[in-house]
Design goal:
The chain has about 160 residues and is of the alpha+beta class. It has 2 domains: about 80 residues, Ubiquitin-like (UB roll), CATH 3.10.20; about 60 residues, Orthogonal Bundle (DNA polymerase, domain 1). The chain has 5 helices and 5 strands. It has a 5-stranded mixed β-sheet with strand order 2-1-5-3-4, sandwiched between helices. A hairpin with a 2-residue loop joins strand 1 and strand 2. Helix 2 packs across helix 5. The chain starts with a strand and ends in an 11-residue tail after the last helix. This is Molybdenum hydroxylase family protein, small subunit.
Amino acid sequence: MTEVTMNVNGRKVTRSVRGNELLVEFLREQLRLTGTHVGCDTSQCGACCVHVNGELVKACTMFAAEADGAEVATIEGQANADGSLNVIQQAFQDYHGLQCGFCTPGMVMSAASLLKDNPKPTEEEIRHHLQGNICRCTGYHNIVRAIMAASGQETPAVAAE
């Protein structure tokens, strides 16, 4: 066992971890931050996306010990200080960017990363950025619209169903 200390959503935590314990396991099992999902066990789906030192990371690809000393942000830390939804979360709700909700935390974390680096992305840039995130329900149209809205841009029309 190795002791790690990190700031998770602004809170300092110290725990013992196994050498092979993944960051996603640490967040879900030790800290009970279950918004970070495990969807594929192969790093393909993006449901486990978090920010580590401001960078987007698939938490299933990183050992918890590698995050020792890091700033980690999860979906649970994305709400506004008063507990209300942040602009990205609100846009996902307003533009129906979710259905079953399983991929939503990873999508929101990916969107936050994109908008931090590119505050006014094009539809093509959004779609390219989300290539590491799989949604099995929505077809991505409303997710793209939500991210466009969160960036303060006019949203593209939804294709006829």
